[in-house]
Amino acid sequence: MLRIILAALAGYIAIGILIAGTDQLYAALIPGFHASPVPPLNYFLFAMVTDTIYTYIGGWVCGVISRRDLQATLGLIILGEVMGVASTVYLWETAPHFYSFYLLIMYPLAVWYGAKLRAPVGT
Q1: What percent of the chain is modeled with pLDDT above 90?
Q2: Pair 20, 54: CB distance under 8 Å
Q3: 118: which DSSP letter?
Q4: Residue ranges of the domains in the chain?
Q5: What does the alpha-carbon distance between residue 104 and residue 76 come to, in Å, rounded to a whole number?
Q6: Are the CB atoms for 24 and 73 separated by under 8 Å?
């Protein structure tokens, strides 16, 4: 059971670290990024692509640690969706709605397929 919990948390933390790092890089490369109250549209488009890739990676991390345990994958999906809904509500006036809904739809799919990338147990 501990492995399942740690796998879901590790996957979620991996996603968070990758997204935060990319956001910092983006902010450093785009002059005046922090001066604007709302990030430019190209930030959200870029983030949709990178967040999906990072979610695959987080699903893979979860799958590796849990040895492809379905409970860990579902735990990571539920944790991410709860946080995604909370973020959508919090950022309702700031982020474009298409961005929030895209992430809510793609997150479970990306985690699921990322967890499936792990080689079968015993190989």
Answers
A1: 76
A2: no
A3: S
A4: 2-116
A5: 13
A6: no
Q: Which residues of the chain have pLDDT under 50?
A: 123
Residue 12 to residue 28: CA distance in whole angstroms: 24
Q: Is 89 helix (H, G, I), strand (E, B) or coil?
A: helix
Written as one string, the DSSP assignment of 25-53 is HHHHHSTTTTTSSS--HHHHHHHHHHHHH
Determine contact, residues 33/39, Cβ cutoff 8 Å: yes
**Which ranges of the chain would DSSP assign to H, the alpha helix?**
2-29, 41-66, 70-90, 97-116
Q: What CA–CA distance (Å, rounded) separates 69 from 121? A: 10
- Considering only CA atoms, which of 72, 74, 75, 80 is closest in space to residue 55? 80
Q: What 3-state DSSP class applies to 121? A: coil
Q: What is the gyration radius of the CA atoms in the chain, in angstroms?
A: 15
Which residues fall within 8 angstroms of residue 53, CB to CB, at 6 or more apart?
A: none
pLDDT at 117: 86
